[in-house]
Write a structure and sequence with these properties.
- With about 100 residues, this protein is an alpha+beta fold.
- It has one domain (about 5-100): 3-Layer(aba) Sandwich (Trna Endonuclease, Chain: A, domain 1), CATH 3.40.1350.
- It has helices at about 5-20, 30-35, 60-70, 95-100; strands at about 25-30, 40-45, 50-55, 75-80, 90.
- The strands form two sheets. It has a three-stranded mixed sheet with strand order 3-4-5. The chain has a two-stranded antiparallel sheet with strand order 1-2.
Length: about 100
C-alpha cells in the first residue's frame, strides 16, 4: 500500500467516525488505539465491526471477507465512499434480516 493510499484510508476512517458523531453516536478511529489486525477501522457504540473503504474502486467481497474475519461477535459492515459520493454501508443480508426482526 502506498503512503497516499494509507493516508486516504486514514482520512476515510476519520471522516466516517465524524459522520457517526454528527448523527449522535460515539465513534473514533480504531487502529491507532488497538493496532491489532482484528481491530475495527472505527470503534463505536453501535453493534457493528466497522471496516472503512475510502476508494474510487471498491472491491466488495474482499472487503466483506476482511470484515467478517475480524468481526468476532459483532455484525460486520463495510462503509464505503468514493470522491463526491455519499457514504454507503454494506452488510450480509442475513445480518440485515436479524436486525429488522426477520
Amino acid at each position: 500500500m502506498t503512503i497516499n493510499s494509507r493516508q486516504k484510508g486514514n482520512r476515510g476512517e476519520r471522516e466516517f467516525a465524524a459522520f457517526l458523531r454528527e448523527h449522535g453516536y460515539e465513534a473514533r478511529r480504531g487502529q491507532q488505539f488497538s493496532g491489532g489486525g482484528d481491530s475495527p477501522d472505527v470503534v463505536s457504540n453501535l453493534p457493528f465491526h466497522i471496516e472503512v473503504k475510502r476508494t474510487e474502486r471498491f472491491s466488495l467481497y474482499p472487503s466483506m471477507d476482511q470484515a467478517k474475519a475480524d468481526a468476532g461477535d459483532r455484525v460486520p459492515i463495510v462503509c464505503h465512499r468514493a470522491s463526491h459520493r455519499p457514504w454507503v454501508v454494506v452488510m450480509d443480508a442475513r445480518d440485515f434480516l436479524k436486525l429488522i426482526g426477520g
